[in-house]
Write a structure and sequence with these properties.
Blueprint lengths: L4 H11 L3 H6 L2 E7 L2 E7 L13 H17 L5 E10 L7 E11 L3 E10 L4 E11 L5
Antiparallel strand pairs: 1-2, 2-4, 3-6, 4-5, 5-6
Length: about 140
């Protein structure tokens, strides 16, 4: 997609208020557009479980944040009402990348899919999120 630097800065400033995702977890927004977001997370020891793999909660947080950016940027406030995550493999690289696709944008609800992979292309998880719009477009 490749948004403008100004658009990216606007998104990072607004969603930077989600301090758990951005400061505690270290997720950053790499690209944003209408019903679209691409976010990444550099894997550190803090993200790993006892076996050395990335903790499922860290992967889910990346997916949830990416959904939030895609569904809320320049749009009505939308919250997740249900999510389904399927872990498909272990990350082999050092960076997790989440990218959204809008499946359905209804009047009061929406459905997104989020693909998560590492920078080597290893598929790590597939997530679907149903969102509810708290306000309606005029």
């Amino acid at each position: 997609m490749n948004c403008t630097a100004e658009t990216l800065e606007k998104a990072r400033e607004f969603f930077g208020k989600d301090t758990y995702a951005t400061q505690t977890t270290g997720i950053q927004i790499d690209d944003v557009g209408e019903h679209y977001a691409k976010c990444s997370l550099t894997i550190t020891d803090a993200h790993k479980n006892a076996y050395g793999g990335v903790m499922g909660g860290a992967i889910f947080t990346l997916a949830d944040y990416t959904f939030a950016v895609a569904s809320n940027f320049n749009s009505v406030q939308t919250v997740s009402v249900s999510s389904q995550i399927n872990f498909t493999g272990m990350a082999k690289g050092n960076i997790l990348i989440a990218e959204t696709s809008l499946i359905k944008d209804g009047r009061t609800t929406c459905l997104y899919s989020i693909d998560i992979r590492d920078e080597l292309g290893t598929k790590v998880a597939f997530v679907t999120v149903t969102g509810m719009k708290l306000a309606r477009d005029k």
